[in-house]
Design the sequence.
């Protein structure tokens, strides 16, 4: 996957939005909460960051090209140093899981407004 295909995939989820923050990050949100972040700086060390389940976090950061995401690793976020650090299928599955985890934690009021 590349920047554009990841951008399109993140926006394919129901109620997903995007915005630019910190001048260098394209953030993908659901209900105002971030589920993925793409770097707008092609020279950045971290290309993509997303939330993952605690039980796979440590396995992921052991892989080449994946590290704890700066500032949010304590919440089980990982950062990919290159887009091919994971297969397309695995990456899509992990991004979808991040979206689902964030969506499931939204307050009921926000969820009902999104439906």
Sequence:
């Amino acid at each position: 996957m590349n920047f554009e295909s990841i951008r399109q995939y993140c926006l394919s989820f129901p109620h997903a939005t995007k915005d630019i923050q910190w001048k260098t990050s394209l953030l993908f949100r659901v209900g105002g909460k971030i589920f993925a972040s793409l770097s707008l700086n092609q020279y950045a060390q971290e290309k993509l960051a997303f939330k993952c389940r605690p039980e796979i976090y440590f396995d992921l950061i052991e892989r080449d090209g994946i590290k704890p995401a700066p500032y949010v690793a304590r919440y089980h976020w990982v950062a990919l140093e290159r887009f091919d650090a994971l297969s397309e299928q695995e990456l899509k599955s992990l991004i979808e899981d991040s979206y689902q985890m964030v969506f499931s934690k939204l307050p009921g009021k926000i969820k009902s407004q999104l439906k």
In short: Residues 51 and 77 are 4 Å apart (CA to CA).
